[in-house]
């Protein structure tokens, strides 16, 4: 399987342990909603030692122009300091790293509830521009 592109865009996440979490990525390719037909989304977590965490799994859901990654309260309760995540998308036998970053756990009962947005832009090796707007 070929891997193309540069390093993924960096988006660090703060996750409240023991609560449901959703990250919505609105995706455009050269200004048009991204078509996920035939695409495979790989979203994984890695602990501080670099080992993949198979007990904590993202649930990806796609529709045209949108990718939603969710974690249930059981999964978020297991996240520890130093963990990282990444999201790769494979389409037409080409894997592209889209987004990666740190996962910072916050214990329940600390802080308030907040949401934030970010816009990330990735230029693929073919010169196409992939724009990702994130909302968590």
Outline the structure in words.
The structure is a single chain. The chain is mostly beta strands. It has one helix at residues 73-78; strands at 2-3, 9-10, 13-16, 21-29, 32-33, 40-46, 59-63, 66-71, 84-91, 94-106, 117-123, 129-135. The model has no long low-confidence stretch (mean pLDDT 82).
> How far is it from the N-terminal to the C-terminal residue, by CA?
31 Å
Number of strands: 12
Shape: globular
Major sheet size, sense and barrel closure: 6 strands, mixed
Task: Give the mean pLDDT.
Answer: 82
* Low-pLDDT runs: none
Query: H/E series, N to C?
Result: EEEEEEEEHEEEE
What is the tally of helical segments?
A: 1
Structural class, by secondary structure, is: mainly beta
Task: Tell me the helix content.
Answer: under 10%
Overview in brief:
The chain is mainly beta. The chain is 4% helix and 53% strand.
Descriptive labels:
12 strands, single chain, 136 residues, 4% helix, six-stranded antiparallel beta sheet, six-stranded mixed beta sheet, globular, 1 helix, mainly beta
